[in-house]
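In this section we walk through a basic example: taking a raw amino acid sequence and producing a predicted 3D structure, encoded as C-alpha cells. The instruction is simple. Fold the sequence below.
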Amino acid sequence: MQDRQPSATSNTPSRRSFFAGAAAVGAGAAALAALPRVAPTEAELAEPARVAPEKGGGYHLSAHVKQYYKTTQL
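The resulting C-alpha cell sequence is shown next.
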C-alpha cells in the first residue's frame, strides 16, 4: 500500500473557491446597491446653505467643523 503525500498545490486556493468568493462579493455589492437611500437628518436640513463670498474667505464654524474639533482634542 502506498501512502499519498499531499501535493504542493493542495494548500493553494482552487479556481472553484476563487469564483465562489467572487460571486459572493458580487452578490453583496448588488444587495448594497439595492438598499434604499437614507434621508438627511433634521440637523442637516436646518442649517441653510451659505453662499460663497465674492472675495474668498468662506470659512465659517459649522456643525461638522465643531464635531471635527471635538475629535481632535486630547
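Looking at the output, two observations stand out. The chain is about 45% helix and 0% strand. The helical segments are 15-34, 42-46, 63-72. In the next section we compare this with other chains.
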